[in-house]
Design goal:
InterPro entries: Clathrin_H-chain/VPS_repeat, CNH_dom, Vam6/VPS39/TRAP1, VPS39/TGF_beta_rcpt-assoc_1. One of its GO terms (biological process) is intracellular protein transport. The chain contains 29 helices and 30 strands. It is an alpha+beta fold. The strands form 8 sheets. The chain has a 4-stranded antiparallel sheet with strand order 1-28-27-26, with no helix packed on it. A 4-stranded antiparallel sheet has the order 2-3-4-5, with no helix packed on it.
Amino acid sequence: MAFKAFTQTHVYERQEAPKEKDKSSIQCLECYDRNVYIGTKHATVQHLILPSSTNGDLSSCQSKTREGRARKLGSSNPVVQLRAVPLFNHLLVLWERSITALNMFSLEPVPALKKIQHVSLFEVCDSSLTAQAECVEMVTSSSRRKVVRIHVVGVDRWEVVKEVPLPQDPVALAVDGTSLCVATCNMYLLCDIESGSSQELFPHNHNRQRVIVTSAGQGEFLLNGPESLGMFVMKTGICQRPPLQWPLEVLAAGVCFPYILTLQPQVLSVYSMLDQQRKQTVSLPGAKGLLSTPDGVLVFTERDIFSLRLVPLEEQIQALVRHKRVEEALLLLDGVQSSRPLDSYKDLQKAITCLAGFVHFYQKGFSEARDLFIKGELDPREIIHLYPDMQLCLGEDFQSRFDHENKGRDLQVFWREDRNTFHHYLAFLGDFLRAVRGTEQDLKCSMEVDCALLRLYAELGDTENLQQLLTFPNDCRLDHCVPVLEQHNRFFALGCLYQSHGKQTDAIKTWVKITDGSHKDPSCSDVYGHIVWTLSQLKDRDTVWKFADWTLQRNQEIGVQIFSKRPPDDRLETQDVLVLLEKYPLALVLYLEFLIHDLSSEEERHHNRLALAYVTQMLKEEKGADLMPTRGKLQQLLWESKFYDVSAVYERVKSTTLHTEKAILLGKTGEHSQALQVLVHQERDLRAAEAYCCRAAKGRDTEFRQSLLLTLLQIYLSSEDLTSTAVDLLNNNPRVFAAEKVIQLLPDSWSVQLVSQFLVRSIRETLHQRRMARLQKALVQAELMQHKVTWMQASKTKFVLGKEQKCKICQRDFAEPQFACNLLGELMHTSCTGFSAS
């Protein structure tokens, strides 16, 4: 059955004698509520009373239209127009170029309202706009002059209040509020009733019978434009809707939002204002004209009147959905919402939006389908249950609200025969479920959504999305998802699934099997590193201790991180860790370094243990191994730490070849001369000896460094083989050595030429220091002189303190001789200086 926007009902058939048929033919109509008025060709006004109906459907009524009173206005000439004014129970009749006022029910003339002569057209403004003022406005067109007149109509009077001149005689007009749209023989105009201004719209070439001007409501008019176009024009003169292409022989047009009805001699066409498409055609042989009513139109022929009532919008939308025209249903629903709110608009909109989404879904328009499903808040299970493999994710109590019997078979065919196409549908499923996951659509079925996503990622081999799903909290069912992951060899993801559900031991056991080779899963390249990180963050300490040995046995350097990388508020007992690490020397060293360098431990036992561990490590390393990093760490610890037992460490190294370390320990006890002897004669590293002097003197005064270098110089001088080294030491440190002390130490056999370079640099440095001291003293004296001059200038300034002198701050008199003065010379109490500064 075709879609219907309007239902047709035969309202009335005029019964007349054969001789009276031509005279009694209907010329015009007017309608208010159940009252219909007929104007005939032979000057008669007939009152009809439509049957009452609770739902507005005339076709369902058992009673028929009743004829009320009739009034004969004269012997001839047709009635041109009828307009009801319900505010005063007036019926205005245009006949023989004059307007007569009748009572709407008795059809008797209103005695107080005399005829308005010489009128060719008239319209009554909407009485609801002026009801409070107890009057209505009426617009009339003069049959003698090129003007329109504005009348104020009351219960017992009417009078002209304004005239608006026109360039040509009007042939049709319509009123909407204060806006008047007029058609002349070749032009459409807009006039403002209040200001009297007019504006030309566009020309036309229609004859008088084809000119159409009708109000579309809300300041908009519908006009018969050129080239058979129905033009919508706002009262501002602009078009906000696209034009409507309608037939050539249009007799009349009416607007019943959201439709336009156009009348031709044999047919009435219904067009949508939303997409400008024809929606319905009604056969009406002999139709002459139509009258817009609040819920449709009345169409009349010579003898008959037909009612076309708007089908309730909910029924229209449901009919479109039944005809699989969901896009039109959505368009209609969105278009009428602003002007006609529906009680069930939201639910209806969601359902139709989802149906439109399914249309795109089965046509592989996945992007549009996803957007429509989200907009329509579709239950994700409706999509999941379409996929053969995914139906296991749904509970037994789920029942689909949509009929997918035939389309669902298509997916099963793709699943069996066309895996490439089915892969695209799987990709859409993942895209849609990711989009709705965590939203309100997901609240009622989060378990089904997560299970479907896990199964989908496992089948597609989508490692990244699978890990992202399982790394964070999820609602996957273990009894369903564990077999799926095992089936696809996703053992690392299986561990993540256990972990996300709080089963930490099961998770680590699963990962351990991957590391040991029991399970094969190439999806993660560093499972061991992940185990270590997990244990380092785990609050379950029993599980940490349970896997600690396995972790350290596999790799001490990385495994120790289960203790050193823990959160600051969840560290394990230090002594317990040290006891465990006794079996793992490298891990022990790394943990002690963590305690000292990262946690800034000041416990002597930690520092002693680390130093001795370094020594043990140095002595156990095989020849050829790179010992420099470890030795560097040992020396740095010996130099910088203040918390180890020097004697204990010295006892451990004194019988070894670690001479540099022995020197550092001797220096810690103040035995610098002995330390330098070790470096020069045992280690035979002269650079180390000089570096020792610099390092030992760090943070001390110049005299201490000078004494160390003098001691080293004496050691060099005591050996004939180190003469050149002694000279180099002097030449490299001319600023440190005092020339007079060095000369006393030099052997008598040394010539002046041998130490000339040192002497020249030393004397030059001494002179430079003296000159710099004099210059600095002179600068300080100059600055002092400037301060004295400023003070002298300020002390010579005079201030006059009179009797009427007031404080600048508190405006009170000075009662004491003490006062203060600011830079501007303003006087104030000494107690007010604090307020001035603030």
